[in-house]
Structure formats: C-alpha cells, structure tokens
Amino acid sequence: MARRIRAHVTGHVQGVSYRASAAAHARRLGLVGWVRNLPDGSVELEAEGDDAPLAELVAWCEHGPPAARVTRVRIEELEPTGAERAFITR
Predict the structure, then answer these.
(1) Is the alpha carbon torsion for 18, 36, 30, 3 positive or negative?
(2) Which residue among 6, 36, 37, 69 is the active-site one?
(3) Per-residue pLDDT tens for 39-88?
(4) Residue 4 among the catalytic residues
(5) 19, 27, 72, 74: which is the annotated catalytic residue?
(6) Active-site residue flag, 37
(7) Sign of the C-alpha dihedral, residues 74, 22, 68, 43?
(8) Which of 6, 8, 34, 84 is 20 to 30 Å from the Cα of 18, by its Cα?
C-alpha cells in the first residue's frame, strides 16, 4: 500500500548536491515525487511509494550526500495522490 510523505530538511543542504542525490536515491528505490530548494536554505521533498523504500529514503535524508550537514529532518504524512510517474528535481 502506497504512502506519501513530505520531508523538510534543514542544515547545510543547498549547494552540496542534496537535491540531485536525493532524487537519484529515490529513483533507485522506485519512489515517485519531487525535491526542491526553499528560499530559507532548506530542502523539501515529497515522496510516494511503499513503506520500506520510504523508510530508507528518510534514513538517507538524515545525512544526505557527503558534503551536507543535516541538522533536522521533519516528516509529515500526506495522502497518496497516485498522480506522479517519476521522481523529479524542481
């Protein structure tokens, strides 16, 4: 059964390939959704898929790519939409 989450990631997460790495990881896990930078320097993503891949993506978000310094990941549960067919970088 599909779930959808929104993750808000703070710390040193822009300018370190966080979005590209998150999108690549989500695609490898078979998830759909999107990731984007926010004006305040944080990163936001929404991902949809099965429980185990979502849990793995959340675990990855807590450290991100090597140059990132994540200080907090806030997760919100959303209703699945079933509308997306890929994971994109916005």
Answers:
(1) positive
(2) 37
(3) 999 999 999 999 999 999 999 999 999 999 999 999 999 999 999 999 99
(4) no
(5) 19
(6) yes
(7) negative
(8) 84
